[in-house]
Structure formats: structure tokens, C-alpha cells
Amino acid sequence: MRIGIGIDLGTSYSCVGVFRHGKVEIIPNEEGNRITPSYVAFTDEEILIGGAAKNQVAMNPYNAVFNTQRLIGRKYSDETVQADMKNWSFKVINVAEKPKIQVQYKHETKVFTPEEISSLILAKMKEIAETYLGQEVTGAIIAVPAYFNDAQRQATKDAATIAGLIALRITNAPTLAAIGYGVNKQLSSERSVLIFDLGGGTFNVSILTIEEGIYEVKSTAGDTHLGGEDFGKYPLRRKSHCRNEDRRIKDYRNAH
């Protein structure tokens, strides 16, 4: 029997699950974790994906790629792409107005599209599911941020194809969360539901109505650059600011 999986392709972390025995099982990776860093690293010997790739950021910063959700389906000249590039250690180049990632792999310069990088993460999720289920997986429903436009959704679908997956559906993450809520609660009357989706790199709020198994999105809003990673950065910036203020006060006192 063929089994379809669900993949949450996140900006910072990704995860994969399967619906069976009347419930959703979030599948652990080889390290026993139910989330896998959305990182891909290139070395002289191999391509690393997940936790091993994230560990390469400090020692191999120019060849450790992350946040590709911020590139996929976008143009190189997009303001958000230009702003994000300032925060990345890996190199993004302009090829016919398409952003591409340039790395050193096996002692050679290689160029990858964001779709190709995302496909490696999707392939990793596929591998995790197949190891857990003990059978081949070919179809997947893929969750993407609610703000994704048509070009970004098509690019994600292309990434799935490269990964050897049939994208059964590309769906907003908040909508899938609402479906999970409706299945678990077995609702018999209409409900309005607010989905608060705070990820590692993005933030989405959606309001949906659920009635007789039909899910309708009424409104969606969010911030593409607000998530757990930003909460970690703010205290560091605040601490640095306080240190600078302390230094100015000490300098003033010493001078007077």
C-alpha cells in the first residue's frame, strides 16, 4: 500500500509526518529528533544535510547554506533578497535575474538554484520517512509559509520533483494546522479558528472557519523576518547597546 507523507519545509527547520492508525505521527530523524535543521553544507568529500550541515556554519561558513526559503521563487533584485544577503556567509550570485548559490564542492566551484538546495532537504525528509516506514514514499503534501506567492509555490513544487517526490499539494502551513485541529476535535458545528504560527524565521497568523470538513481562510497576516532566530539576536543587540552606553558613561566620567 502506498503511503503519502506530509512535509513542513521550514525556513529554519523541517519535519515530516505520516497519518496512520487514526493519528499523525511526526517521524524522528536518525538522531532521534522530530525536527531537522534546513541546512545544506558542501565539503571536499560530500554533501551534508540537517544537523551535520548546521555544524559546518562555524568551520565552513562559505559552503553552509540555509534560509533558502527566503530565496526560492524570488528575483535577485528583490529588496528582501538584497537585505538577506547581508546576513549570509554563503555567496549568492545573479544569473539572468535569478538568485543562485555559489559554493566550493569537491574542490570545484559549483552553482545551485534555491530549488536544488530545497530539493536536497526534501529528499532528506523523504529518506527519513522511508527508513521509519520501511517502504518507498513517492507522494507528499508540502506545507509552505502562508505568504508564499504563486512563483514560490511553483518553485517548491519543482524542488519536490527534483527530490523524487510528487507534490500532491502545496498548502499553507496554518491551513494544515487547522485541518489537524479539526480532525483531532471531530467538530460537529462551525468554528472560527485562529492559527498562531511562530517558526524559526517567520511568523504567520491566520483566521479560518471550519464547517463540515470544509476549511476556509478568512484572513492571513505575518512577518517574513520574525521568528525564534530574531528573538535570539535581539538580546545580543541590546546587550551590545548597553555595553556601548556603559563605555560612554565611563569615558565621560574619566574625562571630567
UniProtKB/TrEMBL annotation:
InterPro entries (alphabetical): ATPase_NBD, Heat_shock_70_CS, Hsp_70_fam
SUPFAM superfamilies: Actin-like ATPase domain
Pfam family, one: HSP70
One MF annotation (Gene Ontology) recorded for this entry: ATP-dependent protein folding chaperone
Protein origin, superkingdom: Eukaryota
Coiled-coil intervals: none
Transmembrane intervals: none
Keyword annotations from UniProtKB, A to Z: ATP-binding, Nucleotide-binding
Family from the record: Belongs to the heat shock protein 70 family.
UniProt-listed PANTHER family: HEAT SHOCK PROTEIN 70KDA
Protein name: Heat shock protein 70
Organism whose genome encodes this protein: Rotaria socialis
